[in-house]
Amino acid sequence: MREIEAAVVEAPGAAFRIEMLALGAPGPDQILVAIRACGICHTDLIMRDGHLPVTFPSVFGHEGAGIVAAVGTDVQSVQPGDHVLISFHSCGRCGACHDHQPGYCVEFVPRNFLGVSGPDDGRLWRGGAPIGGEIFGQSAFATHALAHARNVVKIDRDLPLEILAPLGCGVQTGAGTVLETLNVQPGESVAVLGAGAVGLSAVMAAVIAKAGRIAVLDRHQHRLALASVLGATVVTDDLATLGDGFDHIIDTTGAVDLVAASIDKLALRGTLALVGAYPGDPRLALDLSAIMSMGRKIIGVVEGGIDPQRFIPRLIDHYRAGALPLEKLIRTYPFAAIAEAVAASESGAVVKPVLIMDNRSS
């Protein structure tokens, strides 16, 4: 057992509280990572509030980045001292995983939300009792986390972990939707609903794809200003002034009324990509004739529809080339200031808060 600090959420809606926990040694497929940084994602807050099937008390955090401290007996892809980013977990055996679409893994829910672990895996303990962990195969709101060979991506040691940590979820979701799932072509038009980390990552990816018109809708003026800096050609807080005839619309808001209203903004054969977190409400009214008669498509997208092992290195290449200026989205906070960082995320004041863990003696 290793003593660690971790941010525990005791019950749905409770605050993040940093406590001392015990972390078991890595199992055969596990990798012990000394966490240096972890982004705060909107999904962490949805899980905190009990809107996804997680167990409580639990440790969240799923945009971890750090240094490998130890590896299990079956791990060959990394070794102690390697710098890594951590993404979501998948089984590696199902059809989706074989197709390099692990976001649609048949075991996605148990491996990422339910904290399911193998009989020989290390896990989190508090006072001699197990506590919820393994969230997204990592639970990285902690000084140390146990990840897996399939959700750890080795990176060069000269790269800034505090800047690249969000690649593991939010950035790859927005960028992957544009570059992989939608495969946006030069000159095509893209509208992004919501200018959070996912939406702004989609904007940067649209620029990389050489899209034509890039429109962004958001209610925060400072985020719209940032969208313009990142390459958006139209920014607005009013859907009526967004424009129309878009080849692609990407919704990151999860606002069902906005989604319904946006369909009329699609061009012939245009595609609406659903990337946000949506309530389970079957009452959403859609004009099916306007979808069918114009050859429009609506698709769901999880984690950008990408394989992190393949896609994260591509994103790093774009970052090195200056085409993915992630530092413009990020504000760092010491781990002890997690409450302040969460509040900044919830208010919209900060696009992507990143927690910095001070464990360099580990």
From TrEMBL:
Family from the record: Belongs to the zinc-containing alcohol dehydrogenase family.
PANTHER family: NAD-DEPENDENT ALCOHOL DEHYDROGENASE, S-NITROSOMYCOTHIOL REDUCTASE MSCR
Organism of this sequence: Sphingomonas psychrolutea
Segments forming a coiled coil: none
Cofactor (UniProt): Zn(2+)
Alphabetic keyword roster: Metal-binding, Oxidoreductase, Zinc
Pfam family, one: ADH_N
Keyword Zinc: yes
Domain Enoyl reductase (ER): from-to ranges: 13-355
Xref: InterPro entries: ADH-like_C, ADH-like_N, ADH_Zn_CS, ER, GroES-like_sf, NAD(P)-bd_dom_sf
Protein name, entry field: Aryl-alcohol dehydrogenase
CDD domains documented for this protein: benzyl_alcohol_DH
Keyword Oxidoreductase appears in the UniProt entry: yes
